[in-house]
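Sample entry (387 residues):
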Amino acid sequence: MPSIGTSARSFSSSARTFPTTSKLCLNGHEYLKRQLTQRGIAYEALDNGIWSCSAPAVVQRLADGLSAAKIEALLRKWFGRLPHPFAAGDRRAGYRYDCSILQSEFSLTQALNQPVMGRLFFEEVIRENLDLGRPDQVQLIFGRRVSRRTPGRFRTRVITEGVTPSLHIDYKHSRIKQYHKDGRALRTETTINDSRDFDIRKGLSHLSALRKVGFQANRRLLDVQRISQDCAVGEAAFAGVCRPVTVDGQRAAALRWADPVVQALFSALIGFRLVPEGWRQRDLRTPLAALLGVPSEAVSAGRMTYQLRRLRLHGLIERVPRTHRYQVTACGLRIALFFTRVQARLFRPGLAAIMPDAVRDDSRLRRAFEQLERAMDQWCEEAKLAA
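Predicted structure, serialized as tokens:
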């Protein structure tokens, strides 16, 4: 997974008046580098970005501090040095250049802790998000309502230049571009070519409002992509429960989903989550025995100690400090609810519907499995491999 890096912005502004115009181009990452060098803070560059820094909090503070007032001061400094048509008398009379934003770019660079997997990760993200350019997705990313009267083309483009793919999402005159930067980071950048797309005026004083739009678009895109990749998170959570674990040198056996004892433990934990002061080992013993269909005497104290140890090391329960009581953790409640509900409402009814010796019905699931069996039998016959 990537770790969050720094955010910066680049933009072009213009000073417009008759008879000439001027343009100022400013790169936020280069501004950061100069500021870090001036303060003697060590950093490692990533092309025009920053890969690492000895003081990341300072980097972010400097990036956030690149305000409209600072940019205005820089522009006025050069106006004082370069020739322009306004004499001192003109300026005293109120004639001067006014600054507007022609283009602004807001970027987020996420440094990958395993760069060798970055390309594979990014290509998988692209495959899972080819529909991001659709109007219903674009309005989520940019936080703007899209109707049939909204101008512009809504599309997702995957562009390969050389061997480096990039993802492009368009909205009116604005665009989000995402690519694998130098093989070491994921770069997400929103470019706004017309602030009026978001009902924001073009004056430099409105930079903070535009900045909010750009960075929120970056975050929304990453949130959408994160949801599409949550299967990897779910796989890790499943493995954390259904495989043995070792915590501080203590080993605990796996809590296997299909084990009736594990299902009984999970069912009992759901009720104990509501006990505010915690519960003891003996409190769990009776309901566990009832769920297993055995008398309480059949569940020994040693067996209960073993089960509690498994639950604790897997992070499903925790001991109340300085007591012999336990509490169900938030993670434990969610896993217990999910495992028991899937078992009771999905797995067992689903198997009952598709098994050959089950009572025949007209369920869609059974018809689909029968169609699959016929297709497989037909393929085997055609290949002369009798089933």
